[in-house]
Design goal:
442 residues, alpha+beta, 8-stranded antiparallel beta sheet, 3-stranded mixed beta sheet, 47% helix, elongated
């Protein structure tokens, strides 16, 4: 019985919202922060639908309360109305931000316009801060200059309307949150339920005034103002953390946890992650046992990417780099770079240069493109005595004019090979040969 009561108040376990991986994801703390919608909500059609209808219900609730505020002059009801308006208004700039964030990247904004959501968060925090100042000023003014409150019955009814509206939103958010396995939307539901009790405080203030204690109304208004300031503090921390490329520590823990599911990883050397709008970008450096072949390394990196996307629904981009266990990158072991002469690529699908280059992650096969067809895919197949070596070339940091392999081409760097280009259903195979400089033959 007590467990059911605790769950109703939002203090129960949140395992039903963790996506069902069958393991613990840390503290599970997806708290409610105004202006920072959890990405699992924002990227789910059902979640966006829940946000829109929550806005409609809270907007209607606040409008009904506002009418009574003008009739009665209740400061407590004014503060509660401002609170509900703030809850509803967060959806507007966020929705605008979501629309802008869906625009495709351009030459100016190569990562898209996801950061506009951070700006929306700042706007929301400032709006809530302004509303808190207004509510606090009105409450203090009413304490210093008491004025009679009329329509006490309607004030109590408006408080009940606030409770009913928030409770309806709470039930709605919790139900949809469980449907889409979103812990954040469930937490938002419990937050709305808590806001309902804030509305009930208005009813208590009206009862206090009715019993001959006129200061009950401004006192309740001050208490609600304090609650709004607490929301400002919490939300500003969340928004500024995102703007400074901060992430929740649980995300880093989840990346490490995903790596534990992949055999062949020696250790995770470093983890970097940041939000761009409501999409997560991760950069993971791993080391592998020294006897691993190029094919093994490619399999490990692909398997890790699959695990990362499975564990982090908001993940948009995962970059896996190979590092030497002893320190930065295999750059030290490849300091003797002896790259062959580049191969000039000229064909209908692309023009550019194919070469072996040194990078912070070690030697890589790189195709630098001056001109290419849309949706170009490139693969290098090297003829080796022990069998063909396949190197897929992927865009670097979403730059489609620079394609690199995720692993180093095997030694020696003297071979016959083929560059396979595919675009728009067409395929071109370009044979080429690379020869090591004199004095570097194995």
């Amino acid at each position: 019985m007590m467990d059911k009561v605790r769950d109703w108040f939002g203090f129960g376990p949140m395992t039903h919202g963790m996506g069902g991986h069958g393991h613990d994801h840390g503290d599970g703390g997806h708290g409610h922060t105004h202006g920072v919608i959890d990405p699992t909500i924002a990227t789910t059609t059902r979640g966006i639908w829940a946000i829109k209808w929550s806005f409609v219900v809270l907007a209607i609730t606040a409008a009904l309360q506002l009418v009574v505020v003008f009739l009665s002059g209740s400061v407590a009801l004014l503060a509660d109305t401002i609170h509900n308006v703030g809850d509803a208004a967060t959806a507007i700039p966020l929705w605008i931000a979501f629309v802008l964030a869906r625009r495709k990247p351009s030459k100016t904004f190569t990562y898209g316009l996801g950061r506009v959501e951070d700006l929306a968060g700042i706007v929301i925090v400032l709006i809530i801060l302004f509303s808190a100042v207004v509510a606090g000023y009105e409450a203090i003014d009413r304490l210093i200059n008491p004025r009679p409150i009329t329509f006490l019955g309607w004030v109590a009814i408006a408080g009940l309307i606030g409770f009913i509206g928030n409770e309806a939103v709470a039930v709605f958010r919790i139900r949809v949150g469980r449907e889409i396995n979103s812990a954040a939307l469930i937490a938002d539901g419990y937050h709305a339920r808590t806001d309902g009790f804030t509305s009930l405080a208005v009813v208590l203030g009206a009862i206090g005034v009715c019993l001959g204690f006129p200061l009950a109304d401004p006192i309740v208004g001050l208490l609600i103002t304090v609650a709004i300031f607490a929301i400002v503090w919490q939300s500003s921390k969340a928004v500024l953390t995102r703007m400074l490329d901060g992430v929740e520590p649980a995300i880093v823990d989840e990346i490490h946890h995903a790596a534990e599911h992949v055999s062949g990883i020696g250790r995770v050397e470093s983890v970097q992650a940041r939000w761009i709008g409501h999409r997560l970008h991760a950069d993971v450096a791993i080391s592998v046992p020294g006897m691993a072949t190029a094919k093994d390394v490619l399999g490990v990196t692909e398997a890790l990417k699959e695990e990362l996307f499975a564990h982090l629904p908001a993940l948009a981009e995962a970059n896996v780099r190979l590092m030497s266990p002893a320190g930065p990158a295999a750059e030290t072991s490849h300091a003797h770079h002896h790259a062959p002469e580049p191969f000039k690529v000229v064909c209908d699908l692309a023009e550019g240069t194919l070469e072996i280059v040194d990078t912070p992650a070690g030697e890589r096969m790189r195709l630098t493109i001056d001109r290419h067809a849309h949706d170009l895919a490139a693969t290098v197949i090297i003829d080796r005595p022990e069998g063909p070596e396949t190197l897929r070339l992927d865009p670097v940091a979403d730059n489609h004019h620079r394609l690199e392999s995720t692993v180093a081409p095997a030694e020696p760097h003297e071979f016959q090979a083929r560059l396979i280009l595919i675009a728009r259903g067409r395929e071109q195979v370009l044979p080429f040969k690379m020869v090591e400089p004199e004095g570097h033959h194995h």
